[in-house]
Protein: Stage 0 sporulation protein A homolog
Amino acid sequence: MRKILIADDEISLRFLISETLDDDDSEIYQAKDGQEALELVYEKKPDLLILDVMMPKLTGYEVIEKLGTDKGNMKIMLLTAKAQLSDREKAMESGADYFLTKPFSPMELLDKVDNIFQLHSKKEEEL
Structure:
């Protein structure tokens, strides 16, 4: 069972992402701000954190910074409306593993998440 935490202050976007990724192999959790996301990471230990950059209380970058080495094997995908190359570079430098610009299509998100879990399971099999 894969665990996915969606952190975004827009309820409609959380709903869209949740509905897109919901299947029998996933447990999906939601956080409305960065502080709640951080708390849920420690409580639920998700495999994937889908994290908006601009949120109340803590930004996506601040959540990643606070996690530090506690990130473990969890993968982080940052969502942002900013699509400049410098924004993508900042996301990767912050410790995010993946980057997706808003707006995005549900199929693009689904493909990206499926690829993340396929890559992750292949690496585990090699160990």
In short: Residues 2-126 form a domain with the Rossmann fold fold (CATH 3.40.50.2300). DSSP finds five helices and five strands in the chain.
